[in-house]
Write a structure and sequence with these properties.
CATH class: Mainly Alpha
Radius of gyration: 24 Å
Number of helices: 13
Number of domains: 1
Distance between the termini: 40 Å
Helix content: over 70%
CATH topology: MetI-like fold
CATH superfamily: MetI-like
Structural class: mainly alpha
Strand content: under 5%
């Protein structure tokens, strides 16, 4: 019996190692291509680079202006995340705690979800007309507001269950002690739902950082290009075979998301698991 158990354990370990290798190999190959000289990318390419270089990263910032794209993405992502969290969390709390007349609470909730599940391209024409009318197409504002449009419904739908599962007795006792609505919201409620906030913040951050559809439609000036748009422009006719440059751009694009997830992975896991149980 013990031999069979050890055999099953060994098989699971081997299968797990193979799956892990398959999952991590694209990341390794991206890194290997980014530090491999161009001379090694002709003909047969070895799995392990024979030499290393930083020429691709230097060209990325000195010739392609990738530093400006990173700054644009950081500005767009952080501002859209801040606006989305403030508005989304407040709306989710109101929907979860307040009573609505005429039974509009459930239709309102599903309407919010409908905005999130519709393809982003469905909003491009009305948004383009609106942004063009206000004369902001040549700025970073359209991409930022588009990210807010997509992230706010996600935050509302995700956080409603967290607010609903909080014991109302905690809020009632705080009101008895003289807490105002804002003190109750920020000092009592928000700390209790911090794991959910961290989880939905990371999901919103990843979407805003990787957003491409709205950026390529609304952004006209190269000075306002974000990282996804700058990456797509690296793969043009004159640099199609420069895989090292494209790989270096890919490495730089995933670093912020990787760091963000590493530093808050405990909140992400607990927040997602709590949302799954509560939903």
């Amino acid at each position: 019996m013990d031999k069979k158990r050890h055999l099953y354990t060994a098989i699971k370990v081997v299968i797990g190692a193979i799956l892990l290798l398959i999952a991590l190999f694209p990341i390794y190959w991206l890194l290997a291509m980014a530090v491999r000289p161009m001379s090694e990318m002709q003909g047969h390419i070895s799995v392990i680079p024979r030499s290393f270089t930083t020429e691709h990263f230097k060209a990325l910032f000195s010739e392609k202006g990738f530093g400006q794209a990173i700054r644009n993405s950081a500005s767009t992502t952080l501002w859209s995340l801040l606006i989305s969290l403030i508005s989304g969390l407040t709306a989710a709390y109101v929907i979860a705690r307040r009573r609505f007349r005429f039974g509009v609470k459930k239709p309102l909730t599903y309407w919010v979800l409908l905005v999130r599940v519709l393809p982003p391209v469905a909003f491009t024409i009305p948004l383009y007309i609106m942004f063009n009318k206000f004369g902001v197409l040549n700025t970073r504002l359209p991409a930022m507001l588009a990210c807010v449009l997509i992230n706010v419904p996600l935050i509302i739908w995700f956080m409603i269950s967290f607010f609903q599962d909080l014991p109302e007795a905690i809020e009632e006792s705080a009101k008895v002690d003289g807490a105002t609505e804002w003190q109750l919201y920020y000092r009592i409620v928000m700390p209790l739902v911090a794991p959910g906030v961290a989880a939905v913040a990371m999901l919103s951050f990843m979407y805003a950082w990787n957003e491409y559809t709205y950026t390529v439609i609304f952004t006209r000036s190269p000075s306002n290009y974000t990282v996804p748009l700058a990456l797509s422009l690296l793969n043009t006719e004159d640099s199609l075979t420069n895989f090292g440059l494209v790989a270096a751009g890919g490495v730089m694009s995933v670093i912020p998301i990787t760091l963000f997830v590493i530093f808050a992975q405990n909140y992400l896991i607990s927040g997602l698991s709590s949302g799954a149980v509560k939903g």
